[in-house]
Amino acid sequence: MVISVGIIGATGAVGQRYIQLIQNHPVFEIEVLTASDKSVGKLYRDAVNWGLGTPMPDEISKMEVKPTIGKSIPEDVEILFSALPSQIASKAETNLCKEGYIIASNSSNDRMCEDVPLVIPEINPEHLGLIEIQRENRGWDGALIKNPNCSVITLAPTLKALDIFGLESIHVSTLQAVSGAGYDGVKSMQILDNVIPHIHNEEEKLETEPQKILGKLEGSGIEMHGVEISASCNRVGVIDGHLENVWARTKENITIENAKRAFKQLKGLDLHSSPEVLIEVFEEADRPQPRLDRNRGGGMSISVGGIRKTTDGIQYNCLAHNTIRGAAGASLLNGELLINSKWF
């Protein structure tokens, strides 16, 4: 079985990751690439500043970049993977869903809409049930599914594992790589010899999105989890890999060994892009580290270490590759989940 897919917003950092990850995919085949007006009509190799450590696929390099709007996407394309900036995606994704396309999107717009699934497949695949409600509400044949913020994708699986102890509150401080801001997002003179202790809108996403992901699908909507989350987000001079320091307070007493066991028991899925080990647990106090651990599980695993007991819970560090597990890989996994669902 081969499924034709498209990448909308294909020239940016996340768009390039989509191409890299889909290049040898057993099911998905790229049929169309779209980008902004300045790139439309060019060959992909002439439109993109390729920034990945692997070569640009030759067949992709020769594809002509199409506009995202204006009936330029072939009707036989079955899934669109979106790397559009949120301010553009809000309108473009809606229009494409009205035309009948299914979109797995990394863009931040509409993540918290009541009828839009915000999904990490290993955690809340049942939230795809919102697609039926979405189609009824909006009168379209397409579907819009979102993956969370890149730091939320790092954090949420660990919270899911610990929720058996009754999560009450979370404090998290992130150390986020520069690639999370895109190639033009942080100037070298801002980040070299520096840490930037604020990232616009990131704290709000970390404090709200996990509540939806960990919530329950009840009737026509999601009953939010209710865990209190406070976040501080920092940009650091690392290329890839978001590291997070987490303090979790739980209702039940939790030991270090119980926490490790809970992390290890959260499993991957039988999907091509889901890692064999979802959460890798380190015994070392100084792990995980971005340079050493971001590519575990092909960049799709979450790493946890530095686990310590606190008065009313535990403290730990977690890490994931922000443009693979935290962005393109997350959408790709959602696409794989979709094709195995009754809503595809």
Report strand %: 15-25%
Rounded radius of gyration (Å): 19 Å
Largest sheet: 6 strands, parallel
| Lateral arrangement of strands in the main beta sheet | 3-2-1-4-5-6
How far is the first residue's CA from the last residue's CA?
14 Å
Q: What is the count of DSSP helices, taking H or I runs of 4+ residues?
A: 11
- Any idea what the CATH superfamily of the largest domain is called? Dihydrodipicolinate Reductase, domain 2
The amount of helix comes to: 25-40%
What integer is the average pLDDT?
A: 96
Instruction: Name the CATH architecture of the largest domain.
Output: 2-Layer Sandwich
**CATH topology name of the largest domain:** Dihydrodipicolinate Reductase, domain 2
**Structural class computed from helices and strand pairing:** alpha/beta
Q: Note the quaternary state here.
A: single chain
Number of separate strands: 14
Cα shape: globular
In total, the number of domains comes to 2
Order of helices and strands: EHEHHEEHEHEHEHHEEEEHEHEEH
Low-pLDDT stretches are: none
Characteristic key phrases:
alpha/beta, Rossmann fold, 2 domains, 6-stranded mixed beta sheet, 29% helix
